Structure formats: C-alpha cells, structure tokens
Amino acid sequence: MRCVAPARELPIARNPSGGRVSGYCSRLGCRFQRAGSGDAASHRRHPRRQAPASPLGRTRFRAQAATFCKPMCRAKMRNLAPADSNSRISVLLVEDDAEEALRIMEMLAAARAGSVLVSHAEGVESALRMLIEGSYDVVLLDLTLPDGSGIDALLRAKVAAASVPVLVMADEDNGPQALQALRAGAQDYLVKSELDTQLVARTLRHAVERHRMLRHLNEVQQREHFLATHDSLTGLPNRISFQRGLQAALEDAEREGTWVGLFFFDLDGFKAVNDNLGHAAGDALLREVAERLRNATRKSDLVARLGGDEFVVAVKHIHDAHAAATWAEDIRRQIGQRYVLEGTECWLTASIGTAVYPGDAEDAELLTRCADTAMYHAKAQGANRVRFYEDGMNAAIAERFRLVNGLRDAVASGHLVLHFQPQVDLLSADLVGAEALLRWRHGDRLVSPSVFVPIAEQTGLAVSLGEWVLREACESAMRWHSIQSRPLRIGVNVSGRQLSDEPFPSRVAAILQETGLPPDRLDLELTETSVIDANATTLATLCGLRDVGVRIAMDDFGTGYSSLTLLRELPVDALKIDQSFIHGAATSERDIALVGGMLRMAQELGITTICEGVETPEQLQLLRVRGCRLVQGYLLGKPVGQAEFEEQIVASQPPWSGPLSDPALF
Length: 666
Hints:
- By secondary structure, the protein is α/β, with parallel strands linked by helices.
- About 50% of the residues lie in helices and about 25% in strands.
- The strands form six sheets. An eight-stranded mixed β-barrel has the order 20-21-23-24-25-26-27-28, surrounded by six helices.
C-alpha cells in the first residue's frame, strides 16, 4: 500500500494504457476512481467505505484498510505522478504489524511535513518484489518478519536493491544483533519502543544524505580508478592496466597450454594528419582506431593505447605462428581502411611488431619489449608491414640506444664537425660556395649521416642539432670572407622537424645577426620528403625564411613523386638535381633528356640549378653542353674539414682547377 501523508488530494495522472486515475489517501483510508472498462470490476470489488465515528472503530478500520486496500494501492498509486516529487523521500516500510506500521507512518508524516511517500509491505517476499519493480530512497525493515527473520531479510533486501539504504528496526535493543546488522550493510539500527517523530526525522534524513555521500564518493573513486588505468582519450586500458592483464593472460596460457600473440603497432602518417587537419582531427582519428581495434578483436582479448599513436593488442588462445600472422594482417588491414575526418578523407597504415608467448618471452614486460623491437624493424623497412621478433633484433636496438645516447653527448661535447664540399661555376672556373655536411666521430669511427640524422629526427634532437650546424656554417662562411675577397655562399641542410617549428625563421635571423653573415649568402637546402606533406605551418615557415632574405634550395630534386607540384606551390630559389640523374647521363639517353629538361625548365622559371654528384669528366662535359652552370661532386672536390677547405680557397691550384682546365670541356 502506498500513501502520501498527510491526507490531501493527489493530482490526476495518465495511465500508460490511456485510462485516467484519480485518488486520495486519508492516512490509510484509500479511495480510487479510474475510468476504463478494465478497472470496473476492481472498483466494484473494492467499494469505498466510511470510517466509523468512534476512536476504537477508526483504529480497527485503519488496520483493516491497510490489508483491504493494499493490492489497489500498490497496483494503482504507482500511476500517480505526485507534484513536487523532487523534494519527497520515497520510503518502503516493511512491517507485518498493521498497528505498528500505522504508528510509524504517522511519525513519518509529521516528521517530513507531507513530503514522504510511503509504500507498505507486510513481508519479505512482497518487499523484494516492490524493490525490484519500484524506486525507493530508503527502506525501513523490521527484523522480525514471519517469512524472513533477522539478518537474512536484510541481506536479501541488499541484493534486491543494493543502491538503496536500509534502516533496520527491532523490538528491543540487542547489541550483537545491531553490530551484525551494520556489518551486513544496514545504515542504522532502531528500537521501535524508542521511536519518536524527532528521532525518525533525523535518522531518515541522515540515512538518505549519508547514502548519497557514500554513493558520490564511490562514483568518484571509480572514476579515479578508471582514469588511473585507462586512456582518457580512447577509453582503452593504459600501459599499467594492460601489463597486469597481459601477465594474467600469460599465466592462463601456461595452465592451458596455449599461445598468446602480442601485436605492438605504430600508426604511419599520423603526424601528417595532426599537422594538416589539426589536433582535434588527430584525436578523432585515434578514437576511430581504438574502435576498429575493439571490433577486430574478441572480448577475451586485450587492447590498449600506450601513448601517442602506439597501440598494443594481445590475442589469447592461439596455437601457432600462422594464427598470429593472420591476426596481425587482419589488424593491419582494419587500420588501413579509409577514414573521414571533418569531411576529409584520409588513409594511414600501421607498422606492426609481433611477439609470441612462450616462444619469444615468458613474462609480460619482456614480451612487450620484443614486440616493440619488432615494430621498430618493421618501420625501418618502409612501414605498413608486419615483422615477427627475431633474436638478433635486440642487438640492433641496443646499438640504436647507444647511438641515441652518444648523439646527445656529441651535441654537448663537440664530437660533431662540419665538412665542406665546393660548388663551382663551370664557365668561370671560380669557387662560388660550399655545402656544409655534418660528420660525427663516435668512438674510433665516423657514423654515417644516413644513420644518425634519422635518429636525430626521431628523438627530437633535430632542432638543436640543426641550429648548431647553422651557426657553425655561418661562422665558417664569415671566416672565408676574411681570407679572400670574393663572397662565397654556404648551403645548409634543413630537416622537416625544423620546418615544422614556427620560430625557425626568427632563429635563422638571430644566427645571421650574431655571425654577421648577409642573408643572401645562405642557402637552406630542403629535401622533397621534408616538404611532401607541407601544411600551413611549413608554408608559413618557408615564407618567413624568404622574408629573412635567405635562399631556398630544393635538394635531391627529381627523386620524389611531387617535384613539379612542389615547384608550383613552394617558394623555391634553386634546384639541386639529384646525383642519380647525373650518374646515368653518361650511359642513358633517357637520363640525359631528363637532365636537359630540368635545366631548361629551371631556366624558364628563373630558378638557379646545381648538378650534384659529378664524378667523371664525361658527366662534366655533358652538363656543360646542356647549359649547366653550377656543379658539385667528387671530381671537383671531396668534403673536407674546415682547415683543409680554407687552404683550398687560397691555393693557386685548388682541386677543382684541374678538371675545369681540361681542353675537352671547351
């Protein structure tokens, strides 16, 4: 039976079936009027009764009404929508004694001044049904019920509605029973004989508020635990959570005699998406990748984001390497499908390193390192591929680690040096400039730039390394001017990381001012790969460099697929035709035609050309005949250190004078 105390008219509410319900409850006296054929019989079975005039008669009437009207109250008062429901407390009173139930309801009515909505159940079974079907703020539970006594009734109530606080009532003060009830989850223990309006009001208020605070605290703790163990962007487990899950998976695999395949992968081309479409698009892409991984794996498998664009997947219950390879290829294909970000279509690929338990490692941390190592090898081989871990990979990774640490030390300790290769005018035989080439002496050997420059790009050293090279090169060019009168140009290679750094033009201007080198004597050489995905930041950087007054040169021109597009879109002043065309020109008519075409195109565009990699007199002759003016290569001079290059500048017979004095050239 559900009633609103004190007695007042209840608003009319719509029944889902369309019938109209109206009613009021005067304490326990209930009246229902409901339109609809389906309720007519019920109305006839429960006619309205008038309460007797005498006090004793009214008491008996109320007790009878509690039982008589209960089915109608429970079934039909649920359809009423009481006004001001936000301020009411919905109480489920579980008490088999009708007189006691009436007394408690009168206390509740007086305590909450009409804002208590009370539902009454006479036994445990009916209370459990009401808890499952209804919604309550608090339960008042008698511990001495005929169909469920003591703590058993409390435990069953907590199971039926774990989120509802329960206050238990007993006929006498029983300390052990009270302690047992509190340990079982009760909010408070009340003695019926000690109940009064003030105590009921305070206990009810404290129980509801205390439960609200505990629920809020639990939600906060759950949220904190989620944030500590999951990636906030994708909702996937983070590294800590994944390692725990992976270790448990390995232990299960050991017991079951199965394998676990671990796939560590990095997204190829993710940086280009971030640079071109913005970080919001990059975040959306990571969320989409996470969703694809969830869909590509089973619920029993593990998926995590380790940070940046690195993800990892552990697949359980595989039985051989072929199954692991199949899983890896499936994940790679899923990642490689089309993405639509802010209305723009884009594609990216994944480099995947695969390691298998128990073959490659026997604990989670080592297995992850093996897969990580294999991923780096996959990326080094051109990306968008799957590599399985092999024993020799660790040695290569250890060597790379030593190079990274050594390179950091080399920048600070002066183990880096510049070599200079001359650039010569074919017609006048004069030296016009030089290209600065970085060399690194690591221990007792020279490390090739093709090895350490990519490492510098990957480890974030490219910017500081590039600034050191630029300053040293500008200072060298100023020294050359002090030992001979003719101004010489200096060419310096610039990395893609430097171009994506917005303050780069201002740093170049500052170095020029510090060293005193005029801006028009500095060539900044860019490779096609560094600007192939040029975004707004890169274009702004190039325009800023032009504003400084330096010259922009395109290095290795002709080797990329977008050479002509770059000429149209980028502010280029000079082209350095790649040595592969020069080497082939002596034997290939096609290469001769391509070199001649590039030279003519550059002349029409007003762009200076430099042919690099000249190694034979035949190559030099072919270039001169086709109008090439500036050349660079081993035939004219190998890269040498600062002191030796300065000696060549002032020498009467520098290395380039011999080849250029050959009569066969003219």
